[in-house]
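Please predict the structure of the following assembly.
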Amino acid sequence: MSTIDARTEVLDTLLYLDGVTVSFDGFRALNGLSLYAAAGELRAVIGPNGAGKTTMMDVITGKTKPDAGEVFFNGGIDLRQLDEARIATLGIGRKFQKPTVFENHTVWDNLELALAGHRSVFQSLRFRLSGEQKDRIEATLGTIGLEALRGRQAGSLSHGQKQWLEIGMLLIQDPALLLIDEPVAGMTDSETEQTAVLIKQIAQSHTVIVVEHDMSFVRSLECRVTVLHEGRTIAEGSMQTVQEDPRVIEVYLGR
Amino acid sequence: MQTKRPSFQFFAFGTDGTIFLLILTAAAIAVPVLNLAVGAHSPVHVPTWLMSLLGKYLCFALLAVSVDLIWGYCGILSLGHGAFFALGGYAMGMHLMRQIGERGVYGHPVLPDFMVFLNWKQLPWYWYGFDNFAFAVLMVAVVPGLLALVFGWFAFRSRVTGVYLSIITQALTFALMLAFFRNDMGFGGNNGLTDFKDILGFDIQANETRAGLFVSSAVALGVGFLVCRMIIDSRFGKVLIGIRDAESRTRFLGYRVEFYKLFVFVVSAVLAGIAGALYVPQVGIINPSEFAPANSIEIVIWVAVGGRGTLFGAALGAVLVNYLKTYFTGALPEAWLYMLGALFIGVTLFLPKGIVGSITDFPWRRKPKKGDTEQMTTTTVGGTE
């Protein structure tokens, strides 16, 4: 009975992490972490420093291999077996904590490089943009609000603009799952608000997992929240429920 | 959207690239003409020794371009590129040795002199085929390319980057140097391969042959430059620059970084091999000292001085530093190494973009350029929402 339940869960869930453990030289960054995200969901993951949020992203994107546990994507795809490039082409896009864009390329070129398809060496030697692909880049520029800055070198953008550009680079790949790591760190208040609007807009057509420290930002996302602590999930639910959970209060305020 | 380029250019090689190609073409025509057609007493006569010296510089320029392709555009700092250059040189040297035939000191019809001297009775298997020019030319590209492929496969797949990669490339060239020094390797040991007589039936000392070699070097440099330019101007080149600036971002976008690096590393090694093959007949010798780690470091200095990430800057740096080397090793031999060191430190401190990069940055030449982040001042532009 229970095995059948688990099986259906794997099939219905876009992302399935169960009992994931990762140790670095004896330190358990993840300690039996479980997390399930349904297709189309917007999910926020919060937790104090060292809770394992970034390591969780590393595991999902193939940067770190777990010592134990299961990581499945889109039904039966076992992410533990695949490398970063393969996982990215499967439709998992990742935004880093620090804005990571190609500083020496223009905003346009950054989006062009992120465009889905044409990843092999010999394809890229002969690659030409089609009209349809140009439209896609235009549309993405519109979504992230950087139309006017298309010819600017990405290195000269403001911090917030770089973050949006990076989100745009993920978006243009039309990923099934978007992982966004601390999007508003270092942003001004107005940039933070704009980012919340942007993420909610993206979440209408994509599954999005946001890792964030900023509580008011997470609240403004109005979504299901997972709280991590010492490498495992300690609470899950709406922001309201989570905030009232005694374990969460202890973790955040108890010490 | 895209930067509008000035009109003075052909194809898409940029103004600087076009000027570079024009100068190269002019040199490829003028130098042989001034050597062959102008009398020795004319003030504009180019003596043969000078033509060969310039031909040598052109080979070094191609070698520098090959290093700039991987270092300037992909961030792979190879401190062992002299190895690929030397392997190309040895492949050509082996052909030239076989061409000597019975004219050697010992007059053996098949075996090169050094093998007779070592009392060898037959040609080692890896010397077969080198009597054929086409086969030798093929090996000039294949041997360095194959070594780069195998070496790069392991290095890039294991994600060896930065200073660690530089160190193992040094180890690679050092190991090859030690191997080639050994007599029983069958490459002439310490003395290397020398005493060449002719190439494709032409006397290797003749002015006409020298002129032919000079023109070949110029053509090789021009073609090598165009190949690199085309790679860089394609989307592949954009990915390369992406890898240089943010490797893990590129990987998370789904690019197989190791294959991109491997491809460009092999292309670079083949270019270096071709440079070596053209170098050997012009200097008349190839020996294991070409594998010396210091040689490979010198190549990097040429590129740094000229300006990395510009290709023609690398070529310019190679010619300039080698001209200085020729001059000072004649005038003040004991001072040269100090000067070279001072030059490298000076360029790193005061001209981090090299000569070409610094000129391009001059205010009167301000135009949006790759690698130039300052031209965009930090004015915040509206229209983000």
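The interface with chain A takes residues 1-3, 231, 234-236, 238-239, 241-242, 245-246, 248-257, 259-260, 263, 368, 370-373, 376-378, 380-385 of chain B (CB under 8 Å). The longest strand of chain B covers residues 193-194.
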